[in-house]
Design a protein that fits this description.
homodimer, 295 residues, alpha/beta, Nitrilase/N-carbamoyl-D-aminoacid amidohydrolase, 6-stranded mixed sheet, 6 helices, 25% helix, globular
């Protein structure tokens, strides 16, 4: 079982806290991108909706004022940053697509600052303090899940709630993604006890590791930290290898840039030895397109 | 977050070692079923191909002699055992369907000894010492994945290699299964080092826990123990709850019956609070029916 020579790609995941001032958050993110690039990160990923507080904790229509068009100020700042530092950059933008039509959108810029991917979050949650169905229209692109050659790797972007869906990871991997990026904003309710907190963070890690494993690819999850109103965002950003093992993990309560060197040679190697893609029963998966049972 | 009154179902998973003598193995299994029933198990599950050694370590056509028709001696013995002890019983049989047509089949008997489910393994592995493609025709039932009301719970059966496929778990859960059973035969190659062994057993546990989590159901994995030729079967049978937490786990090297009380009330409760089924994008999953990319 000799492995191919390694093809290392360094990723940098920016885990940060946010303030009520978008300009401050954007400035901080740009600073962290610069730092990550300096440390050799070839692909940098920001957390979900990094430019603002997580504004979905209430159904407050004043928050729509945070949205921007793409291209718009934030996407232009990210594009310039990607070009300046010659990196691939994954950002997250509250997108205003038209009057009354808003999306939670991940954007990918290449090392020349060109936008090479725009992914509108497909699965939209709605839970107490996560009122995203109020704000975001579900993505409607065709196909909804995709991968893009992005410098040193072919990557796929998914956003937060998508992480609970094996279908989303599978489709993105089948589109050719070697690394899946999940910009995220997930936290504990202030009334949650220690046991519940642990179970939730464990589940969040487990499901994303399982995507790495079942698809034989890398997974990068990027979560925010800090207390915002009733939520304590739990950070814990991590990178899982194609066998579902965590190769790097951030703290639950500090701002940091998490680095990992992803050996892309592991993908083919892992898939040869645990050839899950080989044996998929695509003739028998039709029911996946149903809501439940036969209907 | 008050939960419904509990609806406990006791499962008993029979983890055993096998000898070259099928009659001995069957006798042992019947004894363990009786013991499990006496301890209150309402659903008992045996490991994959419990009646023999794991005969797929070489492509030896003499091993086809182990196969039986269904109904046949083993299925009749299992049916009688289920009726005698008034339990639901999940067994595993090397099935001879016709001349030159063999399956790796899970069978479900109700508490009156009636066969209420027959599942022919859908995903067939082929790796060194797991030459299953030589022996087993992939299942061709329509639908391939299903659930059956079986006494105290609606259950689904899948077999070993199926456990690496989120699609199989999803389809079985969408068919109504509250508990997924995975009769299994998985082991370490004798040349594998400690680190590889740990990674493999961890991955095996991880992927099945992820099915419990993403579908909000219980998962029961039942593996054999013992050294057979070049393989050390790693046991570690376990039960995961709908949040992906392990609620019972067996040793890696001893024969035992693993018991767990599954509170079916947790299923609806978990799915209400983490409503993954609610938000599935069935309009966008068409690519799951493709092998790779767009083709």
């Amino acid at each position: 079982m000799v492995r191919k020579p390694s093809r290392q790609v360094r990723v940098g995941l920016v885990q940060m806290s946010c303030t009520p001032r978008p300009d401050q958050n954007l400035k901080k993110a740009l600073g962290q991108i610069a730092k990550a690039a300096k440390e050799g990160a070839q692909i940098v990923c920001l957390q979900e909706l990094f430019r603002s507080l997580y504004f979905c904790q209430s159904e407050d229509d004043a928050q729509f004022a945070l949205a921007e068009e793409i291209p718009g100020p934030t996407s232009k700042a990210l594009a310039a940053s990607a070009a300046k530092h010659k990196i691939t950059l994954v950002g997250s933008i509250f997108e205003r697509r038209a009057e009354g039509l808003y999306h939670n959108t991940a954007v990918v810029f290449n090392e020349r600052g060109k936008m090479i991917g725009k992914y509108r979050k497909m699965h939209i949650p709605d839970d107490p303090r996560y009122y995203e169905k109020f704000f975001f229209t579900p993505g409607d692109a065709e196909p909804g899940f995709f991968a893009v050659p992005a410098g040193p790797a072919c990557i796929g972007t998914l956003v937060c709630w998508d992480q609970w869906y094996p279908e989303a990871a599978r489709l993105t991997a089948l589109a050719g993604a070697q690394i899946l990026f999940y910009p995220t904003a997930i936290g504990w309710h202030k009334e949650d006890g220690k046991e519940v907190r642990q179970a939730q963070a464990d589940a969040w890690e487990l499901i994303q590791r399982s995507h790495a494993l079942s698809n034989g690819c890398f997974v990068c999850a990027v979560n925010r930290v800090g207390v915002e109103d009733g939520l304590t965002f739990w950070g814990g950003s991590f990178v899982a290898d194609p066998f579902g093992r965590i190769i790097a993990k951030a703290s639950h309560d500090r701002e940091e840039i998490l680095y990992a060197d992803c050996d892309l040679g592991l993908i083919d190697w892992t898939r040869r030895h645990w050839p899950f893609l080989r044996d998929r029963r695509i003739d028998a998966y039709g029911g996946i397109l149903k809501r439940y049972g036969q209907s």
